[in-house]
Amino acid sequence: MHASKPGSGLPRPRKKPTQPRAVFTVQAIYDGFVRIWRRDGPAAATTRAIAAETGYSVGTIYDYFPNRTALLAGYYEHCIDRLCEQLVAADTDSADRPWPARLRLLVQRLYGQSSDSPYFDREMLTRESLVANPGRQQHAFEKCSACVYELIQGWPDRPGAVSRRHVDTLVQTVWGSMRYAHILGRDTLAADAHVEDLTLMARALLLSAAEDQPDKG
């Protein structure tokens, strides 16, 4: 008998929606889940409450999520997908700006400081380690890091070549800072200042990477 991988038995969504109607349904379920979580607290975000909030039946919700833990795990993955979409869209909109300005927007998005950033709070982040499959967490990180790497590589005026290692460090630094800020309960003003500091650190990292690996392309 093969030993199971850590976290392999954790609940997970039954399926990932691909058809437009299913995508709309799952988005509505996530939106209802977040509204209840923020308005009434985590304990109130039950399957029945989400059904009442969204107008979908409990059976429809079960078609995608066997229980609330699976829904929460699915929401984390959904947030990564949404974050990558937002990173690409924001960078495309700022294509005519110099790379330091695009970097600042990228850090702001990664830190979750945009008005339409996926919602997270202290309790959600605390529960993530309890419900998320480690392998899927790694996949989510690699997906986001690859997205950031491709964006930076597309900046024509970037200071030089950037390796995946440097981008991994950048993403880990910003994400780790965001998570710890939630744990500490930092306010918006402190978060804004933190984004500025993180942007300076990210800029120094990219400049250092360029010195180590001159761009010959």
Topology of this protein?
Blueprint: H1 20-40, H2 47-54, H3 58-64, H4 68-93, H5 99-110, H6 122-131, H7 134-153, H8 164-184, H9 188-212
From the structure above, extract its key features:
217 residues; mainly alpha; Arc Repressor Mutant, subunit A; Tetracycline Repressor, domain 2; 2 domains
What does this structure look like?
- It is a single chain.
- With 217 residues, this protein is an all-alpha fold.
- The chain folds into 2 domains: 55 residues, Arc Repressor Mutant, subunit A; 138 residues, Tetracycline Repressor, domain 2.
- The chain is built from 9 helices and no strands.
- Helix 5 crosses helix 9.
- The termini are far apart.
- The relative contact order is 0.11.
Find the count of extended strands (DSSP E, 2+ residues): 0
List low-pLDDT spans: 1-8
Q: Judging from the principal axes of the Cα atoms, what is the shape? A: elongated
Terminal Cα span? 51 Å
Mean pLDDT: 87
CATH level-1 class of the largest domain: Mainly Alpha
Summing up helix and strand content along with how strands pair, one would put the structural category as mainly alpha
Alpha-carbon Rg, integer: 19 Å
CATH architecture of the largest domain: Orthogonal Bundle
What is the domain tally? Answer: 2
Report the portion of residues in β strands: under 5%
Strand/helix succession: HHHHHHHHH
